[in-house]
Design a protein that fits this description.
Layout lengths: L3 H5 L1 H16 L8 H8 L3 H20 L4 H31 L4 H7 L3 H4 L8 H21 L3 H22 L5 H4 L2 H15 L6 H23 L14 H19 L4 H11 L1 H8 L6 H7 L6 H39 L1
Helix pairs in contact: 2-4, 2-14, 2-15, 4-8, 4-11, 4-13, 5-6, 5-8, 5-15, 8-11, 9-11, 11-13, 12-13, 15-17
Length: 342
């Protein structure tokens, strides 16, 4: 076993993360068992998996070829922004015309400043947060590459991220924690990217370390759900649980994908993972309008059937949007190549 499994099964892992996020956003879905409902309610951890795998992939990309900053950001923007604008613009217009949001929402959402400005009609935070992570990635990557003590530097970055979260929550800036809670996982992803490039093996010692981290995370999660927080000297939210569990979860899932005959499930997860951005964009916009959609698609008292249909439609629309954006990108590339040849 080696860390390369995380790169080999990156699409499948992102697919599993996307399905988990979709379950989280289905807040009134009853899965019929308290444990299953708890897993569904913790689905925001799927975003931590996205951040971990994205930063891992970015570290590998930067290590394999030299890229100036503008070219690096242009490639990231070309991957994310076309799909974002194709979903964001009609959705923002819907919020303005149907729900009375101010026209300034178009400006803030179009400039990706909506998350930091907290404007009325703001889009989901993830795209603005992802572009912010991309903006700092080259600097953080070079810092780690030059360091002879990457693990120690990563540990300092993790502690720094936790400290920033503590200050923000203490001062009441809860909205910014969606981003800053993921800073530790972002740095862990960069470190894992170096491990993949170095073809590091999962030795008994490293497996024991990640098992201990996972156990600590599970204990932390149990305590955070049961302990009266007023008795703690510092407030540690449940969101920090995924600092402990994201890497071990991905390693366990990768091991299962490597060793088990999952067949169609693996192919389905890969499909969802390759289209995860577009599926996510629809999930937090069109399919977040549950009250409106229930008027159009009604299945009586069974919300499970409703969500089954909505999940299928969400995935299908995401795949179609991905195909559309990729087709437009390929056509543009072909035109540019033809123009250069002429």
């Amino acid at each position: 076993m080696c860390y390369r499994m995380l790169s080999k099964y990156r699409s499948e892992l992102m697919g599993a993360a996307m399905l988990w996020v979709m379950l989280f956003h289905a807040s009134d879905l009853d899965l019929g068992h308290p444990l299953l409902n708890s897993i569904r309610a913790a689905g925001f951890g799927g975003v931590d998996i996205f951040i971990l795998l994205s930063s891992m992939g970015l570290a590998m990309s930067l290590a394999r070829r030299e890229q100036d900053y503008s070219a690096f950001m242009a490639r990231r923007a070309a991957r994310i922004l076309p799909a974002y604008y194709l979903v964001m613009l009609p959705y923002t217009l819907f919020l303005i015309l149907a729900q009375g949001k101010h026209w300034s929402a178009l400006l803030w959402n179009s400039t990706l400043l909506y998350y930091w400005m907290r404007s009325s009609g703001a889009f989901n935070w993830y795209v603005a947060g992802a572009m912010t992570f991309y903006a700092v990635t080259p600097f953080c990557f070079r810092l780690l590459r030059r360091s002879a003590h990457r693990e120690g530097l990563t540990a300092l970055a993790v502690l720094g991220g936790l400290a920033v979260c503590q200050v923000l929550t203490h001062e009441g800036y809860w909205y910014a924690t969606d981003f800053f809670y993921r800073v530790p996982v972002f740095f862990l992803g960069l470190l894992i990217g170096f491990y993949v490039l170095e073809d590091r093996r999962l030795t008994p010692r490293s497996l024991a370390f990640w098992a201990a981290v996972l156990a600590a995370g599970l204990c932390y999660g149990g305590v955070s759900l049961t302990a009266p927080w007023i008795d703690w000297p510092i407030h540690f939210p449940l969101c920090h649980l995924f600092l402990f569990t994201t890497v071990p979860m991905c390693l366990v899932l990768s091991f299962c994908l490597e060793r088990l005959p999952l067949g169609w499930l693996r192919r389905f997860l890969s499909l969802v993972g390759r289209n995860s951005l577009e599926i996510y964009l629809f999930n937090v916009s069109l399919f977040s309008q549950t009250e409106l959609l229930r008027k159009l698609v009604c299945f009586g008292p069974s919300n499970r059937l409703y969500f089954l249909v909505m999940f299928a439609a969400n995935i299908a629309l995401g795949c179609l949007l991905h195909a559309l954006v990729e087709g437009l990108r390929q056509r543009r590339t072909a035109r540019s190549a033809a123009g250069n040849a002429a």
